[in-house]
# Entry
Amino acid sequence: MRNLTLNIVAAVGFMVAVSGCGSGKAPDAAAAAAKQVHKNAAWATNGLSPGMVAAVTPPGAAPGSVQVKFELQGRPDVAQPLDVDVVIIPVLGNVDRISGRFTADDGLDVVGGQDLPVADKPVEGTAIHHSVRVLPKREGIFTLTAVLTVDSAGRSTSENYSMPVIAGAGLPEAPSKAAPAPEAGAAHPAAATQ
# Structure
C-alpha cells in the first residue's frame, strides 16, 4: 500500500512538473504545487478529506486530548438540510472513552446525528468519523458545537469545539451611517458666523 501511495504521489508530482514547463510560471510556483500534491496525498492516506478544517476551541482552553476536524458537504442554504462530516482524532494514547453531543445556535437546527456514539478505547491517531445533519432556518452565521466528554486515566473532562456554518449570504449588510441631513430652514454653520 505504501508503494502504491508513493507511486501515486510521484506520478502526480511528475504531471505537475511537466504541466508547468513552458507555462512561464516561476519555479517557486511549481514547487508549491508539488508540495500541495504531497499534502493532499498525505491526507488521503490518513482517510481524511483535504477539505477538512480544524474546529475551534474556546479562547484560553487547555489543549484537548482530541482533535476535531469538519467539512460541510455543500453550500448551506436556508431551509435545505446539509450534512457536516466530523472527524474526532484522539491525540493522547490514554483515552479510555469518548462520547458527545452536537448543538447549534438559534437559527440552525441539528436534525440528525445529534449524539456521538460512545467510542471505547479509541486508538491514538485513528479517526472517528461522524455525520451531523443541520438545517439553516434563516440566513446568517451560525455555530455548530461539539460538546465531547473524554474519559482518560479515571478522569472525565468536557471539551467544546465550534464549527462555523454560513447560511445564504451570511449577515445582512449593516446600513451605512451617513451624516444627518441639515434641517430645513436651519442656518448653515459657516453662514451663522458672518
Summary: Strands lie at 53-54, 66-72, 82-90, 95-104, 108-112, 115-120, 128-136, 140-152, 155-167. The first strand starts at residue 53 and ends at 54.
